[in-house]
Amino acid sequence: MNRILSVELRAITKAVLFSLVLGLISAFVIYFSSLSEELLPALGKGILILSIFLAACQVSKHYGSKGLIRGLSIGMVFFIIMLIATFIFNPSLIALKTFVYTLLLCLMAGGLGGILGIGLNGN
User: Looking at the domain assignment, is residue 1 inside a domain?
Assistant: First the structure.
């Protein structure tokens, strides 16, 4: 199975699943605790950054070269997946300011994860 799917596709799939699981966990924690719901946007951004960072790190570590480019591409693909999901489920959430901000977050997290992945390669 691992040879059928590329490293990039596996990393993106893991990142999306990781984001969904962390999103559900944070929603349950906020719902069943006395924490304010105003924490959700910050938690969402943190989950987004962490997921993309780990996926980009995984891909760059596997290849061992071109970490920044690979990380930026992972960030861009993740952003496109989120954009498509937003178009499908709630297109009214798309505004230019949030579009650009989220794109920059995705690219930053991917680039940094890609650079760190090269350092973790060990070759």
Answer: no
